[in-house]
């Protein structure tokens, strides 16, 4: 049945549901004025999460779907960091107090290329404006090819305690096809430098569905990565959307695995990691037993946000930097993607928000259902609807897409509870999509379901 269902459902483009509604539904009706109001309304007793976007890389990986630019010079980076520090000041001033930071995440791009001195200054500015403690979980995304021992040392001294290393594939043929030549030795050196700096929590990113990739090359890469024993793995399917990311047009589509091949690659990686002792977390994460992510899943405390599966329980996420997205009780905000316009807004002392989304009660209800499905593979729809004082009948009995999944034997519904067999976890985005009111408006901007 798995093969039949895979063929039936794998080609549909679906969100990864790291938010609901998803970013393609954001509009310009949410601006800096609304964002200021949301910032000033953050409850004083609750910690916040911070995301800082560094939109620069030394070279472009052809598979990349991030907002980033290539620069070999330091001037654009220095200029951007000056603007980012100014945005931190403006944001904290708008909040009106020194909010406690529960989580901090540096993403990109390649945030680790900003250099030791710049990173120390950036963390110092954050500490001037936010309450950062020894319990703050501070993470950074790293390109092992550009990490120096000096930078690793600066990260450790600044309080960074988790690092996510881009690996993707160690297959030289695949690396050439995606313009990312990265040796095992470079990756080992990065892990060693981070460990020497006191950063012991290491995450590796792997990707399947890349050009020229095969099941065997995926297994080889996974085994080579396992030799370094990171705490966690994040395993993603390559999203080929050349309409939105023009550099992806360089990839020859004939070399891309599709459908059944992608699924077999994902399964091979998952089986290899589980056989090595890792716990399968949600759809596409893996963690060693005893890791906070594995414990959260076991205790039903797993969450999902823009960084994927997480233990972060903060209700507010403040996005800093060009293109960054923030999440609040009332909705989402996003900064201008264009670096120049982002800098102009911050330069005149304003916030750089250009679009977002105001959540309705129905949105919050559906977001809760989708998050629990993505995290737990089951959800008590009746219970959630009752908490919102909403009748669940339209969401369940009147849900044609959901009923089709039930008819195909992929989903069970009993007493208002939906359950998906974890052996069929590849279908979970299809189940979540049954509760997405806006999917038909944004489907072409998402990756295939498998």
In what range is the share of β-strand residues?
15-25%
How many strands? 21
Average pLDDT taken over every residue? 94
CATH superfamily of the domain at 17-320: tm_1862 like domain
- Tell me the CATH topology of the domain at 17-320: pyruvate-formate lyase- activating enzyme
| Uncertain segments | none
How far from one another are the termini? 16 Å
**What is the second-level CATH architecture of the domain at 17-320?**
Alpha-Beta Horseshoe
Count of helices?
17
Strand order of the largest sheet: 10-11-9-8-7-6-5-2-14
Shape: globular
| Rounded radius of gyration (Å) | 21 Å
Largest sheet: 9 strands, mixed
The helical percent reads 25-40%
**SSE class:** alpha/beta
Report on this model:
The structure is a single chain. The protein is of the alpha/beta class and 450 residues long. The protein has a domain at 17-320: Alpha-Beta Horseshoe (pyruvate-formate lyase- activating enzyme). The protein contains 17 helices and 21 strands. It has a 9-stranded mixed beta sheet with strand order 10-11-9-8-7-6-5-2-14, sandwiched between helices. The radius of gyration is 21 Å and the shape is globular.
Q: Characteristics of this structure?
A:
450 residues; alpha/beta; pyruvate-formate lyase- activating enzyme; nine-stranded mixed β-sheet; three-stranded antiparallel β-sheet; 17 helices; 21 strands; globular
């Amino acid at each position: 049945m798995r093969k039949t269902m895979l063929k039936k459902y794998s080609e549909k483009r679906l969100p990864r549901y790291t938010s609901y509604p998803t970013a393609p539904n954001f509009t310009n009706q949410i601006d800096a004025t609304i964002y200021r109001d949301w910032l000033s309304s953050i409850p004083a007793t609750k910690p916040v999460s911070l995301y800082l976007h560094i939109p620069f890389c030394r070279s472009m990986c052809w598979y990349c779907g991030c907002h980033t630019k290539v620069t070999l010079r330091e001037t654009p980076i220095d200029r951007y960091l000056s603007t980012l520090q100014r945005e931190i000041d403006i944001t904290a001033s708008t909040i009106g107090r020194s909010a406690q930071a529960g989580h901090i995440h540096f993403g990109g791009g390649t945030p680790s290329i900003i250099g030791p001195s710049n990173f120390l200054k950036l963390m110092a500015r954050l500490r001037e404006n936010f309450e950062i403690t020894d319990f703050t979980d501070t993470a950074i995304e790293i390109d092992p090819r550009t990490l120096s021992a000096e930078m690793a040392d600066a990260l450790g001294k600044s309080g960074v305690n988790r690092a996510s290393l881009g690996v993707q594939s160690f297959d030289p043929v695949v690396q050439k096809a995606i313009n990312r030549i990265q040796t095992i030795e470079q990756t080992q050196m990065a892990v060693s430098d981070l460990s020497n700096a006191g950063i012991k929590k290491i995450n590796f990113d792997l990707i399947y569905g890349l050009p020229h990739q095969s099941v065997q090359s995926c297994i080889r890469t996974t085994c080579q990565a396992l030799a370094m024993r990171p705490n966690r793995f994040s395993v993603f399917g390559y999203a080929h959307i050349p309409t939105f990311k023009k550099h992806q047009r360089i990839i020859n589509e004939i070399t891309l695995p599709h459908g059944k091949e992608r699924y077999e690659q994902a399964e091979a990686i998952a089986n290899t990691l589980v056989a090595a002792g890792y716990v399968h977390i949600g759809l596409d994460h893996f963690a060693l037993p005893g890791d906070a992510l594995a414990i959260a899943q076991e205790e039903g405390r797993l969450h999902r946000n823009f960084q994927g599966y997480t233990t972060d329980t903060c209700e507010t996420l403040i996005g800093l930097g060009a293109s960054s997205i923030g999440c609040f009780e009332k909705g989402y905000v996003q900064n201008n993607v264009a670096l120049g316009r982002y800098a102009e807004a911050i330069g005149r002392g304003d916030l750089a928000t250009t679009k977002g989304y105001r959540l309705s009660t129905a949105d919050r209800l559906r977001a809760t259902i989708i998050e629990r499905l993505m995290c737990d593979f089951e959800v008590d729809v009746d219970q959630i609807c009752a908490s919102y004082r909403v009748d669940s009948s339209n969401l369940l009995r009147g849900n044609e897409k959901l009923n089709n999944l039930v008819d195909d034997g992929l989903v069970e519904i009993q007493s208002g509870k939906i359950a998906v067999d974890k052996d069929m976890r590849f279908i979970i985005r299809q189940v979540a999509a049954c509760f997405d009111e806006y999917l038909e408006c944004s489907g072409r901007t998402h990756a295939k379901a498998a």
